[in-house]
Amino acid sequence: MTDALSLRAAAEQQASALPPLLAAAEHLASTVILGDHGRRRAGTGDTFWQYRPAQTTDHARSIDWRRSARSDASFVQDKEWQIAQSVVLWVDRGASMRFASTDKLPQKAAVARTVALACAILLIRGGERVGMTGSDLPPRRGTAQIAQMAALLAQDDAADYALPQARGLVPHSRAVFVSDFLGDIAPVEEALTRAADRGVRGALVQILDPQEEAFPFDGRTVFESMSGTLRHETLKAGDLRTRYLDRMAQRKDRLTALARTTGWQFSTHHTDTPATQSLLWLYQSLAQPA
Length: 290
Fold this sequence. Notes:
Shape: elongated
Strand content: 15-25%
Helix content: 25-40%
Strand order of the largest sheet: 4-3-5-6-9
């Protein structure tokens, strides 16, 4: 009976986070104006998209002679791309993501989950299939998929730094990894290498609190991990600033190089800036041709 009550309490606690998360993601998605055909682009399909000037590589049978007769140039009809794409998401749910330097700023986890779920909403509205890595949620369409993603995203990991999951990546699909990327870089390198081997391209979104960029500490300071397993006390925190900032810059350079090598893209978002900026960047990154 005690186990059952504990399980129910845990389930209710997780479920209570879903409405706010879904509401926040829906609101964020609504702030991005994409037009009626958000991810429209030329490709395989039957629906007319636009006219474009004919090129030397176009066959004569592709030319729209009726449209071309109204000008001195030849024009071809572009059809709208209609093949659904699979996009898989990995969102860091480690304890480090629950950091916020002040009560006025959201936790990194809240921003990461909202941006990822809002992106999923936009993708599904655009006809794409969306799922999550490292779970039993393969890419699918529909509002029910969004609800299941929200349920998974509401769960926390006890470890300080969660490990990125490459399991569940669909060959030649797209992927999104959202994290502070402050833990061991080796698992990130391994996951992106495995993704590249499968022809998967995507985007890395680093979520950081402003304090993690500026390191505004001086004098006696106690640094402690969110889980409480790591602790460091110093009397001269200011002496650590240069080394810390150098290591942060090195980490960003490494992530940038890793993304470039594997055909991914990298961006950093700070929790004191509008999440709309990162959502739009992320959505446009996924829309770029493979």
